[in-house]
Amino acid sequence: MKQRIQKIIASAGLASRRQAEKWIEEGRVRVNGLAVTLGDSADPVSDRIEVNGKPIQVESEKYCILLHKPVGYVTTARDPQGRPVVVDLVQNFPVRLYPVGRLDLNTSGLLLLTNDGDLAQHLAHPRHGVEKTYLARVRGAVSPSTVQRLEVGVKLEDGLTAPARVEVTRQQGTHSWVKITIHEGRNRQVRRMFEAVGHAMSRLQRIQFGFLTLENLAPGQYRRLSRLEVARLKQL
Ligand code: URA
């Protein structure tokens, strides 16, 4: 993401913005080998910025954002089919953010986005098995034996699912609301689990990721996690 060059130099801790402006005016700053003038911008990640012939090391600030993903958004940075993407919803940050894991187009709920590659890798790693809780609206009445099957593990085409926690929270007319907690992250896992036990799903929302919940965020709203929350995520 492009920023004023004096700001990049200042963020790298080399000088104040004022001093960096002076350096630019004195012709001591180059971007990708070319001299720059005051007012020019550069991308601290992809451009090579040199001061007095030495490349500067830029450590960008780390962000972790908790987004309430609305239905109808694709969990990628860019969609070849031109559909709305989740990163469009979090544009007020000076860095590029990437989703941690994925929610389907028709799933809403808690999605983390970050520019911290180590954190993203940690959270997505199957070994860490972060618990994710979903609220599903499914067709039909879900019997206690079906709950047990979902809890113990159902056979999907990519193997048996790991033990899950399942609770029917409401039965309303022709539908049931079911809370399900899993710690795997296979593609479309929750939908496939319900399909495997004969319940078509009409709605799916992720309401919890580890200790994080959606709180009062409306679809499309987000907030930045605190340092303490990020530190706790790293311990999961
Ligand atoms: N399981 C699904 O089926 N879909 C999601 O988006 C997430 C988990």
Describe this structure in words.
By secondary structure, the chain is of the alpha+beta class. It is built from six helices and 17 strands. It has helices at about 5-10, 15-25, 115-125, 145-150, 190-195, 225-235; strands spanning about 5, 30, 35, 40, 50, 55, 65-70, 100, 105-115, 130-140, 155, 160, 165-170, 175-180, 200-210, 210-215, 220-225. Strands 7, 8, 9, 10, 13, 14, 15, 16 and 17 form a nine-stranded mixed sheet that branches. It has a four-stranded antiparallel sheet with strand order 3-2-5-6. A two-stranded antiparallel ribbon has the order 1-4. Strand 8 (about 100) and strand 9 form a beta hairpin. Helix 1 (about 5-10) crosses helix 2 (about 15-25). It is elongated and about 75 Å long. The model has no long low-confidence stretch (mean pLDDT about 95). Uracil binds near residues 104, 107 and 190.
Write the SSE topology.
Elements: E1 3-4, H1 5-11, H2 17-25, E2 29-31, E3 34-35, E4 41-42, E5 49-51, E6 54-55, E7 64-69, E8 98-99, E9 107-114, H3 117-124, E10 132-139, H4 144-152, E11 155-156, E12 159-160, E13 165-172, E14 175-182, H5 189-196, E15 201-209, E16 212-213, E17 222-224, H6 227-234
Parallel strand pairs: 9-15
Antiparallel strand pairs: 1-4, 2-3, 2-5, 5-6, 7-9, 7-17, 8-9, 10-14, 10-15, 11-12, 13-14, 15-16
Helix pairs in contact: 1-2
Bound molecules: uracil (URA).
